[in-house]
Structure formats: C-alpha cells, structure tokens
C-alpha cells in the first residue's frame, strides 16, 4: 500500500507503520466586548438671590420716628412693628450713632396697642420706664465704634434686659415682680425721636411691620 495515505497522513516507508495521529489543538478566541462611552454631563450650579419677601433674610429699614402727626404721636399702630419680645432671642437690632446726649429710644406696646414704657440709652445712661435708671457701664461705652454708627441689640426675653454688641452681652439686668410682669406683655415696638439715618433689621420670620414702616418711612424721610 505504498504511496497511499491513511487518515490524511503519509506512511513512513522506513518503519512501515503510520505515525501516531497528531492531536489537534484549538485556540480559544475571545472577542472583546464593545465599549460604549457613556455621555458625561457637566454639573450645573444655581445661584439663589435673596428675595425681600423671603423670611430667611433680614431687611434694613430706617428707624421711623413715631412722634409725628401721621403716626398720631406714637398711637397709630401702622407705625409699629409686631414682635413677641418676651420670647425673642434676637430682640431688636439697631444701627445708630451712640452719643452722650441724644438717646436711642424704643417705645414698647402690649397686644392691645397700649404703651407700657420706653427703653432708652446713650453713652451716659440706661432707662426702662418705671424699672431701670442707671449709668452706662464703661465697657459698653468703649464698645462703640470710633467713627460712624454702631450696631447693637436690645432684648428683654424672660425678663432679662440686655444690650448686645458684636454678640457680647455688655449690659444685663434681670427684672422681677411687677416689672417682669409688665414688660412680659411687650408685643409691639416703635422708634421715638430717631432719624432715618439710623436703621434696624426687620426679620420677616418673627416680625410684622405696620403699613408706614417702609424704606422711606411712608415719605417722612424726605422731609427730614
């Protein structure tokens, strides 16, 4: 059978036997998974501008003087701001010039619009009608700015009268008895004998302004 092929392989003429079949090898072929580039999006930012109607932001208003004919000489509640001062942590924040002679004056009213007293102070003294008359402490006098206006706060929460500057309580007096009961009724305030050059921080979250509390004090600022 010389010259013939068995299973596709030639015979070995020297040995007369066919070589063992060669085991076929297979190569595993892998196909790479196609990759799809995911679209990318740029992060966007939104800028929020404070709105005058947003309760999270304070609004600066002039300290409108209630001692005017239009305000009925501090009897017209449209010239006042409603605020529960007995429970307010922040109280009333004012920016004004601190002097030795002219007082910063705030009129306090109860819920029925009755005047219950005035809080007044300057670099010489501190007064709360019927309850406090004292000299201004030295460290409070020294806290004023050298030039221009100083920002200060008056609060009366839980019967504790405080004057605060830069977050520090520089004057404190605890009311007792009738005085504490009297000023626990403070639900409204107005400014007395103060000018439009001074301002206060109106907080919509805890205050409600009368109709004449406006950026120009209902037109009276232009008359000063």
Q: What structural class should be given to the helix and strand makeup?
A: mainly beta
In the CATH classification, which architecture of the domain at 63-73 and 80-216 applies?
Sandwich
Q: What is the N-to-C order of secondary-structure elements (H for helix, E for strand)?
A: EEEEEEEEEHEEEHEEE
Radius of gyration: 42 Å
The CATH topology of the domain at 63-73 and 80-216 corresponds to Jelly Rolls
Proportion of residues in β-strands: 25-35%
Residues in helix, %: under 10%
As residue ranges, the low-confidence spans are: 4-52
The coarse silhouette is globular
DSSP strand tally: 15
| Biggest pleated-sheet summary | 7 strands, antiparallel
Report the average pLDDT across residues: 82
Helix tally equals 2
What is the terminal separation in angstroms? Answer: 134 Å
Could you name the CATH class of the domain at 63-73 and 80-216? Mainly Beta
**Strand order of the biggest β-sheet:** 9-8-7-6-13-4-15
Describe this structure in words.
The protein has 224 residues and is mainly beta. The chain has a domain at 63-73 and 80-216: Sandwich (Jelly Rolls). The protein contains 2 helices and 15 strands. It has helices spanning 138-141, 177-183, and strands spanning 5-6, 9-10, 59-62, 81-82, 92-96, 104-109, 115-121, 125-128, 132-135, 150-155, 160-165, 168-174, 188-192, 199-202, 208-209. The strands form 3 sheets. It has a 7-stranded antiparallel beta sheet with strand order 9-8-7-6-13-4-15, with no helix packed on it. A hairpin with a 3-residue loop joins strand 7 and strand 8 (125-128). It is globular. It starts with a strand and ends in a 15-residue tail after the last strand.
